[in-house]
Known about the structure:
The chain has one domain. It has helices spanning 2-25, 209-215, 233-238, 271-275; strands at residues 29-32, 39-42, 48-52, 61-67, 74-79, 86-91, 96-101, 105-110, 119-127, 142-156, 160-167, 190-196, 203-207, 223-230, 243-244, 247-250. It starts with a helix and ends with a helix. It has 4 helices and 16 strands. Strand 1 (29-32) and strand 2 form a beta hairpin. Helices cover 15% and strands 37% of the residues. By secondary structure, it is an alpha+beta fold.
Amino acid sequence: MKRVQTGMKKSRFLQIMKIILICLSVTGAVSSCGGGGGQVVVITGPGLVGIDDTIASTAPLLTVTYAPPAAGSATVKIFSDLASDGDIEFDPVLNTFTVTTSPSEVLFGEDSSNANLPEFRTFLTFPLDGITGQPVVPSDAAILSATLEVFVGQVDFASTIPAFLDLVQYTFQGLSAADFDTPLLTPTSFRSLDFFSSDQGNFVDIDVTALMQEAQVPPALPDFQVRFDLQSLATALSRGPSNEASRSVHAQSRALDKIQSNRGALKPPTQEALKSRRR
């Protein structure tokens, strides 16, 4: 037991040290450019990531393989719900929150081009009960694997951006400013991972098996909802040791033969369906 605790403390120490080193390296740099004496301002910072949230070929996609109560296994692919997706911007100078829902690109990180240094957090919702006409993950199914695939449209201000991926709950199609700091589902319902400048223009696959298994704990959640936020020294110190999510990157186009290719054709839920949701 002591060995495990020591390992966890070491892991947390290394994680905090990594964030400190990144913070120390974040400075604005001014360099000369050309022979005319002109200068180019190079802005650096903790980093800002943009995730595409538009059409089926690039929208966030959750792939879940599960074992139903009967024998065998099944694999389903579920797009995030555009009406629930969004990002929240916090301006620390003005002390204001700006909620943007259904954007073509959701952001997380810090916008270092803005003097106020606002922080963005990304929110994605994947319905698990079929309310938008997509496949259902049965509430009594055993989760064998789950992967979240996102297409990275931009990576700015840093070559490496440490992030947290949080399992949270917020109102379906009702993202609000209060969700910026909405609590984790449990104190350990998060994973850490890095995004890189080389991710821009590529798909990043993130292993979310453990988080999806948490979403299945009775009573099973109707949605798999995650928040991407920037790792900072403050957030790292406020949390326990984190497990790192395995990730991979690829440029190959998404095959649409086994998923609904027209994301815009997903049916909007009725008010009655919303009131009676269960899985």
